[in-house]
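User: Can you predict the 3D structure for this chain?
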Amino acid sequence: MKKNKQGFMHGVIILMLSQFIIKIAGLLYKIYLTNKEGFGDTGNAIYSAGFQIYAMFLAISSIGVPNAISQLISSKAAVGDNRGAYRIFKVAISIFGLIGFIGTSILFFNANRIANVFLGIPEAETVIMALSPSVFIVAISAVLKGYFNGREKISVTATSQSTEQILKTVLTIIAVEIFCIISKNNTIVMVASAAIATTAATFFSFMYLYISYIKNKKEIWKDVVTSVIKEKESIRKIVMSILCLFFPIAIGGLLSSTNKTIDAFTTVNTISKFMGIDEATKQYGILTGKVESLVILPYSFNMAFAVNLIPAISAAQARGETEKNIKRVSFSILATILISLPFAAILFTFAEQILKLLFPNAYLGATMLKICSLSIVFVAVTQTIGGVLQGLQRVKETVIAVAIGSVVKLIFNMILLPIEELNIKGAIISTIISNIVIFSINLYYLRKYIKIRFNIPKFIIKPFIATSAMIITAWQIYNNFELLGSKNITLIFSLIMGIIVYIIFLILLKILSKDDIHMLPYGNKVYKTRQPKWQ
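Assistant: Here is the predicted structure, written as structure tokens:
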């Protein structure tokens, strides 16, 4: 097993590259659907409403499973108990296969009631039915991903995720184009075809994971046979270990999706009272279809840290490597800030221009995007801290934070949404308040369990200076030049130049220390010294 291990930062880079591919494909997918005649913001609203219900069931049956399984597997492997790791995998397949099947059944047979009674969007019924099989498929896939992650074979998980998103994009375009012709631009039919394409892509991703497992079976079995620890844990003990770790993570995952679920249940129903159901649905579609697809970009890249931190910290903790954990956590949080802060600044400053570039046929939503961008850094850092706490087996603390944040979200939705002047912006503001509350609680627990100190100039002041230089450069170029007579080309060029200036300032301000650079793949070649043991 050791010969194929991937280091912490190599795993991060692999997942980041995977997320880059995923988000580019996902963005193309959103651009296509939003600009497609007959789909647009209304189609996005119908699809998103159904998808949020699907996501809630997904949270119960599979979100948190890869993290829980990878943590248990890595803890066993760290002490040479590969036999125990494999037994955990086999038991987990049975547990989550059953949970996924139950979730699929409930969703499929109650689609009509959910769409009509809870969402107030009857057209979402077909979306819910089409997505329901994915709950079972993803539950099984989640266990396979957790097993590969725990064995530090992040590339398998990364490839499966990239494959799924690329297929989702390609199959959706094909399906929507076919059914667009057949139905003569019927929005409901096109939305249903997009949901079917999503389920098909999920199935093909599962097949890739299964084939990868079969190909690795010989190596896996060799690890099992040569396991240092021969003693078998009882199935009952394994089940309890899995469920004790899974339930808090699942509850946390469920609560994490609660903010969007709360919006799905309350937004259209509330704001339709003063703007009509059609306009309310359109506004919800703008938020969920365009704005949120842009805002989640930095979270997706940052997820690479959160996912890799769980098995890495869990294994280091099993070996008693406290200093290694502290340095790894410090670097991961710094990297999170350096990734998310420029994203937030760009989306806030160039909101209208970016929407016009990507969605020329439906570019409304600049104000929503500006407001949403204000919480990007808080959410991204919370994501990283959550990975740390899960790796330390402090899952209940993340659940507490998200539970309190969800209550705050619901309360402020009830207060702000009925205000006609705010309308859907009330939902966005309540989300920001909720995210800040969750971040604050997670940060409190992090500092409680890890004696980590944050250097204010390094973590806040210097990144802010670099980001400001980036935005000033990009803004000046955009407003004072027009390349090839096109504002869109000028926008792209100005952002590229701004990013270059940002990187230059990172170097000039010496934000990354020698230890930080050593954490990067091949970073030891920058400073030709022995690489620290803590990598």
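The first helix runs from residue 8 to 35. Residues 257-454 form one domain.
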